[in-house]
Write a structure and sequence with these properties.
The protein is mostly beta strands. Among the domains are: 40-253, Immunoglobulin-like (Sandwich), CATH 2.60.40; 328-513, no CATH class. It has a 24-stranded antiparallel barrel. The longest helix has 30 residues, at 3-32. 6% of the residues lie in helices and 51% in strands.
Length: 750
């Protein structure tokens, strides 16, 4: 390395690294050393729940004497649009409990008589601004880091989810988690009501607890408001756990009896595949799968999940994307088995550098079609939960079957994770992953440690991490380390990230875009809140991202000037001016569609203009659009991405995701028009019968995909699915293979 590069590395990376470490030590000392008085206003008022002495019928009518005598949680405060004002419409929430259930009731008044409500459909797990709803967030261990979330809308539609990472961002709420609970809602001229009964066995908590933390929040479509019982400042997500209030029980709350659930399934099906790639002759194969899951409570706060021959055919297919990146695309986890306490395994490292990614287990890629396919899991177990108030434990062991047709061997996966709470909301975690190929000495292992920082008032969040991988061959550059810090106040937000990834760092059970580099990135946003206008907030933002390889110098950077505008009716606008620099580290076709590749070590500087909008999501017709135009490597790019949705309230929606990229390059490089279109129809005939149809045309990978899924929820957390999938070559419409699967599951509580 020459002297110039050495100085450059120090200026761009080592100096910020030293400052970041100093920053962490200083902020940790200051923030964690704050006296309790800094949070006292949040803790002064709470809710006292009396034990119910009568049977509560879950009918949404609130006729029980329990609700008449219960304390009323009211005086909700806006989070959006103006966090200094009370909610426009009055809300009352009541809580009670007995030996089996936690009960929640709510009476939600309207601003006008006979008000109409917004719901995207009757399908469970709604989210977004296009809703009316009441939600309860339950933090049984009072760690302000993880919570259970249960919500109901005026039509009685349920949603349940898990909040992780303290609810710092809206993405920290996962609605893929599913469980068994009961609710009903009723609509009247001037208000609507809700009753919920959540089985205590559904929740994880310490037996004999006298106090939890909770928050209740309401989404009010008529007034375009989000409001909570605990005040959450506007700069934070409504799911933030830093501001939850105490829920105190009249008598200690306990679980009694067994806590065992069995969820078996039966799944007959038939599939058809070409006898060889591109052939018009097909092989048809029948199948009959069976298996299931078991959930066993090991005490009140630790759970053992076991699975035998699981089948995930009912999981919705991934939305395809046009990939103009040089790296693998990350798709989210949707499978139930991996979700509860999933953050304990999945949140080590940072985005783009994860030592564990659960989709490496049970999903693989067919090299002949480029499609993700199921890699059968023979069996697995996962133990996760709390050991005491401050220590979380996660252990996972799974085995996947060999796939002879693509030359993939069977694999064993093991993961161990520990996380210990420190100070008020911070934690230290350690992780170990192991992947072994059956019948060989081939293995891959990663060990890592995380220090997660979160201040009491949620203004500071961040982490430091260190990881090392182990392979049969010896390496000396197999480590990854770095840190990030976020400071978020009402008028100003700054984020800084600094990573160093060894060239031989190899997390095979995780996700890594590439290795062998240093990265320094960050952004700063100024937020302006105008008065007496339709704009909620607006302001400029600067964003930068530098990547440096020690032997090559800077290989990538982008500089952005952005202006954001958020209106009080949820309409959003963004404008961005961007400058990119790329020095290719290997040959690359910028169309990713088989053209002549640009050569490694070539340098490109290019500029572009980007704009996006999201229309008012409370309307029946909603648009999300983004356009980009300008230079692109040695050519040009004109892009339009979008999603148009029409809501047929309350019975579903018709939508289409589309992407068009016009790429032009000088000869002899290939120009291309890349088209992606994905019309989707979601119909909900009732709160228990759903039909979805998704068709995706992707010219980049020459594929047309069709997925039709019928679901009948015939009992709580019990379903009948009928799923049809098909894939075609987009140029000649020849089939790549199809399948028709029936799957029935039933949830037994023993």
């Amino acid at each position: 390395m020459n002297q110039t590069n050495a100085i450059l590395i120090f200026e761009l990376f080592m100096r910020p690294l030293l400052l970041t470490i100093f920053f962490f030590v200083a902020t940790t000392y200051c923030l964690q050393g704050q006296s309790l008085s800094a949070m006292q206003p949040l803790l002064d008022t709470g809710y006292f729940a009396r034990k119910s002495v009568e049977s509560i019928k879950i009918d949404g009518l609130l006729t029980e004497d329990t609700w008449e005598k219960a304390q009323k949680a009211t005086n909700f405060i806006q989070n959006f649009p103006i966090d200094s004002l009370m909610a426009s419409a009055k809300t009352q929430v009541m809580v009670s409990y007995d030996e089996k259930f936690l009960y929640i009731a709510a009476k939600l008044y309207n601003s006008v008589s006979k008000q109409s409500y917004v719901t995207p459909s009757l399908k469970r797990d709604f989210r977004g601004e296009a809703n009316d709803a009441i939600v309860i967030s339950i933090d049984p261990f009072m760690d302000r880091t993880n919570s259970f979330s249960f919500g109901v809308n005026p039509y009685g539609v349920q949603r349940e989810g898990l909040v992780v990472n303290g609810g710092v961002n809206s993405e920290d709420l996962s609605l893929s988690w599913d469980n068994k609970w009961f609710s009903e809602a009723k609509m009247f001229d001037d208000y609507w009501t809700v009753e919920m009964a959540i089985p205590l066995n559904t929740l994880r908590f310490r037996n004999g607890a006298k106090k939890w933390l909770v928050n209740f929040y309401r989404i009010d479509s008529y007034n375009a408001e989000r409001a909570g019982w605990a005040r959450i400042p506007n700069q934070f997500a409504m799911i933030s756990l830093a501001f939850s209030k105490p829920l105190e029980f009249e008598t200690p709350i306990t679980k009694k009896g067994q806590n065992i659930s069995l969820i078996p399934y039966l799944s007959p099906g038939v599939s058809r595949s070409p006898s060889s790639a591109g052939s018009d002759k097909f092989n048809t194969r029948s199948r009959f799968n069976y298996g299931g899951d078991a959930k066993i409570g090991l005490g009140s706060s630790l759970n053992l999940d076991m699975t035998f021959n699981p089948d995930f055919s009912q999981v919705e297919v991934d939305n395809q994307v046009t990939n103009l990146d040089r790296f693998e695309i990350l798709f989210p986890e949707k499978r139930q088995f991996f979700l509860e306490n999933g953050d304990l395994f999945a949140n080590f490292g940072v985005d783009g550098i994860r030592p564990f990614f659960s989709r490496r287990i049970g999903v693989t890629r067919d090299p002949s079609t480029g499609q993700n396919i199921q890699n059968r899991i023979e069996a697995g177990m996962r133990m996760s939960g709390k050991i005491g108030d401050d220590l979380r434990l996660g252990v996972l062991q799974m085995r996947t079957a060999a796939i002879d047709s693509i030359g993939q061997a069977a694999n064993d996966f093991s993961v161990i994770a520990l996380q210990h709470k420190v100070f008020t909301r911070s934690s230290i975690g350690v992780l170990f992953t192991n992947k072994e190929v059956s019948g060989s000495k081939d293995f891959n292992r990663v060990a890592g440690i995380d220090y997660n920082i979160a201040s009491k008032n949620n203004a500071w969040n961040g982490k430091l991490f260190y990881m090392k991988s182990f392979d049969p061959f010896k390496t000396s550059n197999d480590k990854a380390m770095g840190g990030s810090i976020v400071y978020n106040k009402r008028n100003f937000e700054i984020r800084q990230r600094l990573y160093s990834i060894g060239k031989e760092f190899n997390p095979e059970v995780g996700y890594l875009r590439r290795g062998g580099f240093l990265r320094y990135a960050g952004d700063a946003t100024w937020k302006i809140y105008p008065k007496n206008t339709g704009v909620n907030k607006h302001g400029p933002m600067v964003d930068y991202d530098f990547t440096l390889f020690p032997s090559k110098g800077i290989t990538d950077y982008d500089l952005n000037f952005i202006y954001n505008i958020l209106y009080k009716n949820y309409f959003t606008l963004l404008f961005r001016a961007r400058r990119d620099f790329t020095r290719l580290t290997e040959d690359f076709d910028p169309t990713n569609s088989g053209g002549i590749k640009l050569k490694a070590n070539q340098e490109f500087v290019y500029h572009s203009i980007i704009a996006s909008l999201i229309s008012d999501q409370r309307k029946k017709l909603v648009a999300k659009l983004q356009t980009r135009s300008g230079q692109y490597f040695n050519g040009s790019r004109l892009n339009l991405d979008g999603e148009i949705t029409y809501r047929i309230q309350p019975y579903g929606s018709i939508s289409s995701v589309f992407s068009f990229n016009r790429l032009r390059f000088p000869q002899p490089y290939k120009s291309a028009n890349l088209v992606l279109a994905g019309p989707k129809i979601d119909l909900t005939f009732s709160k228990s019968v759903f039909l979805s149809t998704l068709i995706q045309y992707n010219s980049q990978i020459n594929n047309i995909n069709m997925n039709i899924r019928f679901q009948w929820r015939f009992a709580p957390a019990s379903d009948l699915f009928l799923v049809y999938t098909d894939n075609y070559y987009a140029d000649n419409y020849m089939s790549k293979g199809s399948a028709l699967v029936l799957k029935a599951t039933y949830w037994f509580n023993l």
